[in-house]
Amino acid sequence: MSFKINWPRFSDEFIELAKEQLTAALNKGEKPAKIVDQIFVQDLNMGTKAPDLEILEIGDLAEERFRGIFKLTYGGDASVVLKTKVQANPLLEPKQRPVMNHAVGILAANRPLVVPMLLRISNLKLRGIVSLVVDKQRGVTLVFKNDPLEKVDVNSTFDNTPNIRRFLQKQIESQLRKLFHDDLPQLIHNLSLLQLGVKRED
To answer: Would you tell me how many other CB atoms lie within 10 Å of the CB of residue 56?
Structure first.
C-alpha cells in the first residue's frame, strides 16, 4: 500500500533553516584535504516532486502520532548549490604536464593553487527502507535502514577537467551517504518542528 505526499511550497524561513542545517552537517568532521575552506550551501531548491512511500509495516496509528516502516523512492527535481575553495593542482594526474584550461581560466601547475568552486547536486535517485515517526507534538523522525543513494549528478566549475570531475563525484557520493546515515535524522526533525510550529528544545 502506498500513499501520496502533498509537497508544499516551502517558506523562506524553512529554506534558510535547511541551508543552515545542511551547511553545519557538511562541515562536520574531517573534510577531504583538497577542500581548503568551509562548505556553504549557496542555493537550495526543494523541487516540486515528493518522495513516494509504500507502507511495509504500521506500528502506532493514533490521532496525534504515527509510526511505521516504509519503502521510500525519490527521483524528483530538488537541487543544491555548494560554494567552497579547493586546492586544484594536487588533483592533477601523475606526470601530467602543466596546461592552461581556457574553458574555466584555471592554470594547472605544480604549485598549490587555491580556487573558488561552485558545485551543483541534482537528479538525486533514492531507494531505501525508512523508519518514520510523525508526532504532532514532537515532530518528525526519519531514519534510513540501508544506504538509499542510487544516483546523483555532480556538476562544478571543473567539469572540463576529467580527473577533478571524477574526484568530486566520488567525494560527493561519499558525503551524501554519510549525511543520510548520520545527519539527516536530526536535520529532518529540526525542520519538521518549524513546519509543524513546534518550539525547538536546544
So the answer is: 12
Residue ranges of the alpha helices (H) in the chain?
A: 12-26, 162-178, 184-196
Please report the pLDDT score of residue 191 as a whole number.
Answer: 85
**What is the model's pTM?**
0.77
Tell me which residue has cell 577537467.
161
Choice between 3 and 107, residue whose per-residue pLDDT is larger: 3
> Which residue in the block uniquely carries the three cell numbers 586546492?
87
Angle between helices 12-26 and 184-196 (to 10 degrees): 160
Q: What is the mean pLDDT of residues 141-149?
A: 93
- Per-residue pLDDT of 155-186, as tens digits, reads 998 898 888 889 889 989 998 998 999 898 88
Task: Tell me the C-alpha to C-alpha distance, in Å, between residue 179 and each of 98, 143, 144, 148.
Answer: 36, 11, 11, 11
Neighbours of 121 (CB within 10 A): 19
Phi-psi group of 29: left, alpha or beta (phi > 0 → left; psi -120 to 50 → alpha; rest → beta) = left
